[in-house]
Amino acid sequence: MTDRPSIIVAPSLLAADFSRLGEEIASIARAPWLHLDVMDGHFVPNISFGPPVIAALRKHTDAKFDVHLMIDPVDPYLEATAKAGADHITVHVENAPHLHRSLQTIRALGCRPGVAICPATPAVALSEVMDLVDIILVMTVNPGFGGQSFLDSQLSKIRTLAEMSRESGRDIILAVDGGIDPSTAPRVVEAGATMLVAGSAIFGKEDRDAAIRALEGPFVEQITG
């Protein structure tokens, strides 16, 4: 046993080959979660997919669907996302003007609510919703594209949010997304992260199982909740 927290590794489908998504999902069967980035070309400068694709993918895996909504407006699509098969729905503090209500709605739809925070937004922006979130997602790149370099400036924010999570007395998952690979993973875990979202570090490798193990590192005990 170890005194380090258990770590969730969630492969980001954004880095997969979209021409054969069923096969790509089968190649990451080791991972208990699948991270799905929904982008609209408005809130972020890219377009990915939406609820119909999520619903189609749901037939191919029992993995938890961790859906990250990078769209604006976001509230009108919460119900459709839940019905498509999402287990967790994360909205941005920057795109949810009534964040408290959005998080309540997500939970009422039967999903675990999460909130994401962009690099330029301070941790204090989440101080009034710590009692509502199950997942906090720290963006360590500017959202919108995969394959970007990790922003070291976000390590202090991870530490702050880890402390805020402990002070809340709740079991909040602290996730990190952006530039995660075997070199950056230990640093964010040391800062307090309990979940790693990785795209190219997994889907860019021929042996996806080995790539996931490399991110799990020697300090983790994988969880599936």
Automatic annotation (TrEMBL):
Query: So what does this thing catalyse?
Result: D-ribulose 5-phosphate = D-xylulose 5-phosphate
Matching SUPFAM superfamilies, A to Z? Ribulose-phoshate binding barrel
EC number of this enzyme = 5.1.3.1
Q: What does this protein do?
A: Catalyzes the reversible epimerization of D-ribulose 5-phosphate to D-xylulose 5-phosphate.
Top-rank lineage group of the source organism: Bacteria
Known cofactor(s): Zn(2+); a divalent metal cation; Fe(2+); Co(2+)
Q: Where does a divalent metal cation bind?
A: H35, D37, H68, D177
Q: Which family does the entry's similarity section mention?
A: Belongs to the ribulose-phosphate 3-epimerase family.
- PROSITE patterns with a match to the protein in the record: RIBUL_P_3_EPIMER_1, RIBUL_P_3_EPIMER_2
> From which organism does this entry originate?
Gluconobacter potus
Its taxonomic path starts at:
Bacteria, Pseudomonadati, Pseudomonadota, Alphaproteobacteria, Acetobacterales
Which HAMAP family does this chain map to? RPE
Q: Give the residue range of the signal peptide.
A: none
Keywords on record: Carbohydrate metabolism, Isomerase, Metal-binding
Gene Ontology MF terms: D-ribulose-phosphate 3-epimerase activity
The name on file for this protein is Ribulose-phosphate 3-epimerase
- Which pathway features in its UniProt record? Carbohydrate degradation
**Catalytic residues?**
D37 (proton acceptor), D177 (proton donor)
- What remark does the entry make about the cofactor? Binds 1 divalent metal cation per subunit.
Where along this sequence does the record place binding of substrate?
S12, H68, G144, F145, G146, G147, D177, G178, G179, G199, S200
